[in-house]
């Protein structure tokens, strides 16, 4: 009987023992996690620009990260360290994409997307993030945090998926048109995952529809929904599609220092509001959206409890670029993002914006 119980635990969804997985700060494999790299306070030591908040299914909200972003003992560092230790392993595959690759400038033709896929023939992880020039090529360097990533906030969502889900993830990436700067897809991976092969070669969708959504199931059985658009969609991801698709008002955090920022939009049944200020519950920090390069949005109430992390800003240029988000319905995650919204911009018919405090729960 004991041997049977141990076998069942070994095969249970989400255990991921010995497989490629997202990892928490303690080195334990987890089904998913979200990390929020905090902005570096002005005139503070560099280490202050590598602190982060963390959550997974066990934390029920934000907790302080146990390490720094440049440390392989951080959740993101532990997760990506698998890429560097398995770089010559023919039994693994990976795809690294970033519109601002390491040691390169910005690519405005491809999608505004950043992420990492690493998998074997059983499982793997998809890490969506917002950090330019990151992570380093495993062929050139080991894991490290870019100096350019110290100043501003950054977002990370890591999900552990079974192997079969990477077919749908590949389809998502055909719509978002990422700039792949390094990949390894050989043998059975190339045969099983043709969409990822095409994505790595720079290919993308060629005919409408120009947007695509899919339900993805994590290794632990949690449902996520991916939303991706190609540049021919010619609209804002959030107000042009996502809010109506989720049947929810959305409060969106993005990089507001770009040109042509779109105002909050109340033209549809469900409204989209630009976040102006973020505040973690005390003793956590507060900061302006102008210090935050992260990309996420949260629903306006707990009826549906939507929260999404992804790629895109709200500006005129990115109406003409690919990108997407990965969304989850989870009351604890929804609440953790909802309480961050300190101030947002109201809609006023295009005649400017007025800051208004976010209502309390």
From TrEMBL:
Homology family: Belongs to the DNase II family.
Primary localization: other
Signal peptide: 1-17
Top-level enzyme category: hydrolase
One CC-aspect GO term: lysosome
Family matches, as Pfam families: DNase_II
One Gene Ontology biological process: apoptotic DNA fragmentation
GO MF terms held by the record: deoxyribonuclease II activity
Function noted in UniProt: Hydrolyzes DNA under acidic conditions with a preference for double-stranded DNA. Plays a major role in the clearance of nucleic acids generated through apoptosis, hence preventing autoinflammation. Necessary for proper fetal development and for definitive erythropoiesis in fetal liver and bone marrow, where it degrades nuclear DNA expelled from erythroid precursor cells.
InterPro entries, per the entry: DNase_II (IPR004947)
Record bears the keyword Signal: yes
EC number annotated for this UniProt entry: 3.1.22.1
This protein's UniProt keywords: Apoptosis, Developmental protein, Disulfide bond, Endonuclease, Glycoprotein, Hydrolase, Lysosome, Nuclease, Signal
Catalytic activity field: Endonucleolytic cleavage to nucleoside 3'-phosphates and 3'-phosphooligonucleotide end-products
Location(s), subcellular: Lysosome
Protein name: Deoxyribonuclease-2-alpha
């Amino acid at each position: 009987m004991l041997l049977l119980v141990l076998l069942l635990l070994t095969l249970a969804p989400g255990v991921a023992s010995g497989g490629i997985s997202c990892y928490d700060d303690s080195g334990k494999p987890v089904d998913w996690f979200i990390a929020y790299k905090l902005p570096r306070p002005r005139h503070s030591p560099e280490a202050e620009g590598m602190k982060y908040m963390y959550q997974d299914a066990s934390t029920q909200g934000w907790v302080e990260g146990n390490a720094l972003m440049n440390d392989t003992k951080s959740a993101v560092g532990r997760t990506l360290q698998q890429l560097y230790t398995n770089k010559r392993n023919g039994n693994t595959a990976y795809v690294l994409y970033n519109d601002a690759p390491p040691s390169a400038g910005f690519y405005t033709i491809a999608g505004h997307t950043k992420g990492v896929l690493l998998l074997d023939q059983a499982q793997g992880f998809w890490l969506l993030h917002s950090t330019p020039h990151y992570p380093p090529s495993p062929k050139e360097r080991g894991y490290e945090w870019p100096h350019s990533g110290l100043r501003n906030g950054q977002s990370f969502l890591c999900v552990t998926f079974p192997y079969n889900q990477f077919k749908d993830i590949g389809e998502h990436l055909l719509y978002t048109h990422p700039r792949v700067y390094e990949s390894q897809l050989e043998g059975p991976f190339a045969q099983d995952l043709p969409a990822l092969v095409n994505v790595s070669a720079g290919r993308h969708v060629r005919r409408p529809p120009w947007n695509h959504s899919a339900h993805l199931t994590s290794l632990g059985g949690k449902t996520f929904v991916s939303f991706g658009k190609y540049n021919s969609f010619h609209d804002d991801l959030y107000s042009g599609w996502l809010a109506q698709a989720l049947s929810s008002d959305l409060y969106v955090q993005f990089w507001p220092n770009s040109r042509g920022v779109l105002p909050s939009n109340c033209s549809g049944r469900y409204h989209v509001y630009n976040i102006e200020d973020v505040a973690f519950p005390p003793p956590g920090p507060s900061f302006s959206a102008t210090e935050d390069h992260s990309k996420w949005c949260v629903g306006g109430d707990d009826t549906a409890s939507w929260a999404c992390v992804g790629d895109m800003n709200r500006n005129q240029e990115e109406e003409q670029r690919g990108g997407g988000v990965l969304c989850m319905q989870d009351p604890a995650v929804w609440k953790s993002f909802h309480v961050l919204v300190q101030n947002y911009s109201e809609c006023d018919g295009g005649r400017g914006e007025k800051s208004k405090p976010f209502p309390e729960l």
